[in-house]
Design goal:
10 strands; alpha/beta; 264 residues; single chain; elongated; 2 domains
Length: 264
Amino acid sequence: MPLLAGWLLRHSVVMCLLLHSLVLMTCCFHHAATSCSQSCYCTESETGGKTVRCSNLRLTEVPQDLPNDTRRVYLDNNLITSVPSDTFSDMPLLTELDLSHNELAQLEAGAFRGLGHSLHFLDLSSNKLVTFDPKAFEGLRTRANLTNNPWHCDCNLQMAMPHIDLEPMSLTGIVCQTSEPPDMGVEGVPFLLAKDLDLCVVMKKTTDVAMLVTMFGWFTMVISYLVYYVRHNTEDARRHLEYLKSLPGKQGKSEESSTISTVV
Protein backbone atom coordinates (compact mmCIF):
# COMPACT_ATOMS: atom_id res chain seq x y z
CA MET A 1 0.00 0.00 0.00
CA PRO A 2 2.74 2.53 0.78
CA LEU A 3 4.28 1.76 -2.62
CA LEU A 4 0.97 2.25 -4.38
CA ALA A 5 0.36 5.50 -2.56
CA GLY A 6 3.78 6.79 -3.50
CA TRP A 7 3.30 5.81 -7.15
CA LEU A 8 -0.07 7.58 -7.29
CA LEU A 9 1.40 10.65 -5.64
CA ARG A 10 4.25 10.89 -8.13
CA HIS A 11 1.96 10.50 -11.12
CA SER A 12 -0.50 12.97 -9.69
CA VAL A 13 2.28 15.56 -9.44
CA VAL A 14 3.33 14.88 -13.02
CA MET A 15 -0.26 15.21 -14.27
CA CYS A 16 -0.71 18.44 -12.36
CA LEU A 17 2.47 19.86 -13.92
CA LEU A 18 1.36 18.85 -17.41
CA LEU A 19 -2.08 20.37 -16.90
CA HIS A 20 -0.53 23.57 -15.57
CA SER A 21 1.77 23.80 -18.60
CA LEU A 22 -1.15 23.27 -20.95
CA VAL A 23 -3.12 26.06 -19.31
CA LEU A 24 -0.14 28.41 -19.52
CA MET A 25 0.38 27.62 -23.22
CA THR A 26 -3.29 28.22 -23.95
CA CYS A 27 -3.17 31.55 -22.16
CA CYS A 28 -0.03 32.54 -24.02
CA PHE A 29 -1.54 31.74 -27.41
CA HIS A 30 -4.74 33.58 -26.53
CA HIS A 31 -2.74 36.57 -25.33
CA ALA A 32 -0.65 36.59 -28.50
CA ALA A 33 -3.81 36.56 -30.62
CA THR A 34 -5.79 39.17 -28.72
CA SER A 35 -3.23 41.42 -27.02
CA CYS A 36 -2.48 44.89 -28.29
CA SER A 37 0.20 45.77 -30.84
CA GLN A 38 3.44 46.87 -29.19
CA SER A 39 3.49 50.21 -31.00
CA CYS A 40 -0.19 51.07 -30.53
CA TYR A 41 -2.70 51.86 -27.81
CA CYS A 42 -5.72 49.63 -27.30
CA THR A 43 -9.05 50.12 -25.61
CA GLU A 44 -11.92 47.68 -25.27
CA SER A 45 -15.56 48.31 -24.52
CA GLU A 46 -18.25 45.88 -23.48
CA THR A 47 -20.36 46.48 -26.58
CA GLY A 48 -18.04 47.96 -29.19
CA GLY A 49 -15.16 45.49 -29.09
CA LYS A 50 -11.47 46.31 -29.29
CA THR A 51 -10.12 49.56 -30.77
CA VAL A 52 -6.46 49.86 -31.78
CA ARG A 53 -5.04 53.38 -32.12
CA CYS A 54 -1.74 53.77 -33.99
CA SER A 55 -2.08 57.43 -34.94
CA ASN A 56 0.84 59.89 -35.16
CA LEU A 57 3.54 57.28 -34.60
CA ARG A 58 5.50 57.90 -37.84
CA LEU A 59 4.90 54.31 -38.90
CA THR A 60 6.16 53.43 -42.38
CA GLU A 61 4.10 50.23 -42.69
CA VAL A 62 1.03 48.61 -41.20
CA PRO A 63 1.96 46.76 -37.97
CA GLN A 64 1.93 43.00 -38.38
CA ASP A 65 0.93 42.27 -34.78
CA LEU A 66 -2.55 43.81 -34.82
CA PRO A 67 -4.93 41.67 -32.70
CA ASN A 68 -7.24 39.51 -34.79
CA ASP A 69 -10.27 40.42 -32.63
CA THR A 70 -9.96 44.15 -33.42
CA ARG A 71 -13.04 46.02 -34.62
CA ARG A 72 -11.57 49.47 -35.29
CA VAL A 73 -8.02 50.40 -36.38
CA TYR A 74 -6.74 53.98 -36.61
CA LEU A 75 -3.49 54.30 -38.58
CA ASP A 76 -3.94 57.93 -39.57
CA ASN A 77 -1.19 60.57 -39.67
CA ASN A 78 1.70 58.20 -40.32
CA LEU A 79 4.18 57.61 -43.16
CA ILE A 80 2.72 54.41 -44.61
CA THR A 81 3.40 54.17 -48.36
CA SER A 82 1.63 50.95 -49.39
CA VAL A 83 -0.81 48.29 -48.29
CA PRO A 84 0.44 44.80 -49.28
CA SER A 85 -1.82 41.89 -50.15
CA ASP A 86 -3.67 40.14 -47.29
CA THR A 87 -2.61 42.76 -44.73
CA PHE A 88 -5.93 42.50 -42.86
CA SER A 89 -7.03 39.01 -43.90
CA ASP A 90 -6.72 37.69 -40.31
CA MET A 91 -9.06 40.33 -38.87
CA PRO A 92 -12.60 39.06 -39.60
CA LEU A 93 -14.26 41.42 -37.09
CA LEU A 94 -12.81 44.67 -38.45
CA THR A 95 -15.56 47.22 -39.12
CA GLU A 96 -13.64 50.50 -39.42
CA LEU A 97 -10.19 51.21 -40.90
CA ASP A 98 -8.61 54.66 -40.96
CA LEU A 99 -5.55 55.08 -43.21
CA SER A 100 -5.97 58.81 -43.84
CA HIS A 101 -3.13 61.35 -43.91
CA ASN A 102 -0.41 58.91 -44.90
CA GLU A 103 1.89 58.60 -47.92
CA LEU A 104 -0.13 55.88 -49.63
CA ALA A 105 0.66 55.68 -53.32
CA GLN A 106 -0.03 52.00 -53.95
CA LEU A 107 -2.72 49.53 -52.96
CA GLU A 108 -1.69 46.06 -54.02
CA ALA A 109 -4.15 43.49 -55.34
CA GLY A 110 -5.91 41.87 -52.39
CA ALA A 111 -4.92 44.67 -50.00
CA PHE A 112 -8.28 44.46 -48.23
CA ARG A 113 -8.99 40.79 -48.88
CA GLY A 114 -11.09 39.17 -46.16
CA LEU A 115 -12.91 42.36 -45.13
CA GLY A 116 -15.80 42.15 -47.59
CA HIS A 117 -18.37 41.05 -45.03
CA SER A 118 -17.22 42.99 -41.97
CA LEU A 119 -15.81 46.40 -42.99
CA HIS A 120 -18.30 49.28 -42.87
CA PHE A 121 -16.01 52.28 -43.40
CA LEU A 122 -12.61 52.78 -45.04
CA ASP A 123 -10.79 56.13 -44.89
CA LEU A 124 -8.11 56.65 -47.56
CA SER A 125 -8.34 60.44 -47.70
CA SER A 126 -5.35 62.79 -47.86
CA ASN A 127 -2.88 60.34 -49.35
CA LYS A 128 -0.96 60.21 -52.65
CA LEU A 129 -3.23 57.91 -54.60
CA VAL A 130 -3.13 58.65 -58.33
CA THR A 131 -4.93 55.55 -59.58
CA PHE A 132 -5.81 52.14 -58.23
CA ASP A 133 -6.03 48.49 -59.08
CA PRO A 134 -9.67 47.28 -58.90
CA LYS A 135 -8.35 44.02 -57.43
CA ALA A 136 -7.30 45.95 -54.32
CA PHE A 137 -11.00 46.51 -53.53
CA GLU A 138 -12.14 43.08 -54.69
CA GLY A 139 -15.34 42.07 -52.88
CA LEU A 140 -15.31 45.27 -50.77
CA ARG A 141 -18.71 46.98 -50.72
CA THR A 142 -18.07 49.38 -47.86
CA ARG A 143 -18.39 53.14 -47.69
CA ALA A 144 -15.03 54.79 -48.39
CA ASN A 145 -13.52 58.26 -48.19
CA LEU A 146 -11.29 58.81 -51.24
CA THR A 147 -11.03 62.61 -51.12
CA ASN A 148 -7.89 64.77 -51.17
CA ASN A 149 -5.80 62.49 -53.34
CA PRO A 150 -4.00 63.63 -56.54
CA TRP A 151 -6.13 61.44 -58.81
CA HIS A 152 -4.98 61.18 -62.42
CA CYS A 153 -8.01 60.61 -64.62
CA ASP A 154 -7.14 58.66 -67.76
CA CYS A 155 -8.34 55.69 -69.79
CA ASN A 156 -7.00 53.22 -67.22
CA LEU A 157 -9.03 54.80 -64.43
CA GLN A 158 -12.11 54.99 -66.67
CA MET A 159 -11.85 51.27 -67.46
CA ALA A 160 -11.30 50.42 -63.77
CA MET A 161 -14.34 52.27 -62.42
CA PRO A 162 -17.01 49.71 -63.45
CA HIS A 163 -15.11 47.00 -61.59
CA ILE A 164 -15.15 48.77 -58.21
CA ASP A 165 -17.65 47.36 -55.72
CA LEU A 166 -17.48 50.25 -53.22
CA GLU A 167 -20.65 52.18 -52.44
CA PRO A 168 -21.32 54.44 -55.48
CA MET A 169 -21.28 57.65 -53.44
CA SER A 170 -17.74 56.82 -52.31
CA LEU A 171 -16.51 57.21 -55.87
CA THR A 172 -17.56 60.87 -55.93
CA GLY A 173 -14.45 61.48 -53.83
CA ILE A 174 -12.28 60.83 -56.90
CA VAL A 175 -11.70 64.41 -58.06
CA CYS A 176 -9.41 64.73 -61.08
CA GLN A 177 -6.23 66.69 -60.38
CA THR A 178 -4.70 65.83 -63.76
CA SER A 179 -6.01 64.05 -66.84
CA GLU A 180 -4.92 62.37 -70.03
CA PRO A 181 -5.61 63.85 -72.51
CA PRO A 182 -5.06 67.11 -70.63
CA ASP A 183 -7.59 69.19 -72.60
CA MET A 184 -10.71 67.29 -71.49
CA GLY A 185 -11.67 69.90 -68.90
CA VAL A 186 -12.08 67.45 -66.00
CA GLU A 187 -9.56 68.97 -63.58
CA GLY A 188 -11.30 69.75 -60.30
CA VAL A 189 -14.36 67.71 -61.28
CA PRO A 190 -15.52 64.48 -59.57
CA PHE A 191 -14.81 61.80 -62.13
CA LEU A 192 -18.08 59.98 -61.49
CA LEU A 193 -20.12 63.13 -62.13
CA ALA A 194 -18.39 64.10 -65.40
CA LYS A 195 -20.99 63.33 -68.07
CA ASP A 196 -20.28 62.19 -71.62
CA LEU A 197 -16.62 61.80 -70.73
CA ASP A 198 -14.47 59.44 -72.77
CA LEU A 199 -10.81 59.48 -71.82
CA CYS A 200 -10.15 56.45 -74.02
CA VAL A 201 -10.87 58.36 -77.24
CA VAL A 202 -7.16 58.98 -77.91
CA MET A 203 -6.33 55.35 -77.31
CA LYS A 204 -9.17 54.31 -79.61
CA LYS A 205 -7.93 56.64 -82.35
CA THR A 206 -4.39 55.35 -81.92
CA THR A 207 -5.67 51.78 -82.13
CA ASP A 208 -7.68 52.57 -85.26
CA VAL A 209 -4.66 54.17 -86.94
CA ALA A 210 -2.51 51.20 -85.99
CA MET A 211 -5.09 48.81 -87.46
CA LEU A 212 -5.27 50.82 -90.69
CA VAL A 213 -1.49 50.88 -91.00
CA THR A 214 -1.34 47.13 -90.37
CA MET A 215 -4.08 46.41 -92.93
CA PHE A 216 -2.38 48.65 -95.50
CA GLY A 217 0.89 46.83 -94.89
CA TRP A 218 -0.72 43.42 -95.39
CA PHE A 219 -2.56 44.66 -98.51
CA THR A 220 0.71 45.97 -99.97
CA MET A 221 2.41 42.65 -99.29
CA VAL A 222 -0.40 40.70 -100.99
CA ILE A 223 -0.37 42.97 -104.08
CA SER A 224 3.41 42.76 -104.28
CA TYR A 225 3.27 38.99 -104.12
CA LEU A 226 0.61 38.81 -106.85
CA VAL A 227 2.62 41.10 -109.13
CA TYR A 228 5.74 39.05 -108.52
CA TYR A 229 3.82 35.81 -109.15
CA VAL A 230 2.34 37.04 -112.44
CA ARG A 231 5.66 38.42 -113.70
CA HIS A 232 7.52 35.28 -112.68
CA ASN A 233 5.02 32.99 -114.42
CA THR A 234 4.95 35.19 -117.57
CA GLU A 235 8.73 35.05 -117.80
CA ASP A 236 8.68 31.25 -117.38
CA ALA A 237 6.01 30.90 -120.07
CA ARG A 238 8.03 33.05 -122.49
CA ARG A 239 11.20 31.05 -121.89
CA HIS A 240 9.29 27.80 -122.32
CA LEU A 241 7.81 28.99 -125.62
CA GLU A 242 11.23 30.02 -126.91
CA TYR A 243 12.56 26.63 -125.89
CA LEU A 244 9.82 24.84 -127.85
CA LYS A 245 10.54 26.92 -130.92
CA SER A 246 14.18 26.02 -130.74
CA LEU A 247 13.52 22.27 -130.95
CA PRO A 248 14.41 20.90 -134.52
CA GLY A 249 11.78 18.15 -134.57
CA LYS A 250 9.10 20.58 -133.81
CA GLN A 251 10.35 22.93 -136.48
CA GLY A 252 10.38 20.10 -139.14
CA LYS A 253 6.89 19.08 -138.30
CA SER A 254 5.82 22.66 -138.39
CA GLU A 255 7.36 23.19 -141.85
CA GLU A 256 5.83 19.94 -143.13
CA SER A 257 2.45 20.94 -141.85
CA SER A 258 2.83 24.30 -143.53
CA THR A 259 3.72 22.64 -146.85
CA ILE A 260 0.76 20.29 -146.72
CA SER A 261 -1.52 23.15 -145.91
CA THR A 262 -0.17 25.07 -148.89
CA VAL A 263 -0.69 22.16 -151.31
CA VAL A 264 -4.19 21.61 -150.11
